[in-house]
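Hello forum,

I keep getting stuck at the same step: I have a sequence, I want structure tokens, and every attempt I make locally crashes halfway through. Rather than fight my setup again tonight, could one of you with a working pipeline run this one for me? It's a single chain of 121 residues.
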Amino acid sequence: MATERICLECKTKLRGRKDQKFCSDYCRNAHNNKLNEDANKYVRRINGILRKNRRILEKLNPKGKVTVDGITLAEEGFNFHYFTNIYKTQKGGIYYFCYEYGYRKLENDQYILVLKQDYVK
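Reply #2:
Ran it on my machine without issues. Output:
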């Protein structure tokens, strides 16, 4: 005697494969979205900050290399705590990147903004 299988999302009776858990793609997606909702909120928030940082760097650096004041970055809403990667030069300089746009702190609250070159990994 087989047990009745029901969709994990909408609780309708399942027909078909024995390992089937959902009656449709819609139910499968809805169920997985509910399971991952908290993680998705966190990831969306971080991605939003990274995208905003990238937009600011792109706006302030249209030609690929420029020096700006830290206050200019701050006034635009730049968040220095979030970046996608770090590049350390052979001379020990550290560049922080938001995707392909990077920055490095100089003296007197100045920052050099750069566009990632092919040799930067």
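Residues 38-115 form one domain. If your local run keeps crashing, start a new thread with the error log.
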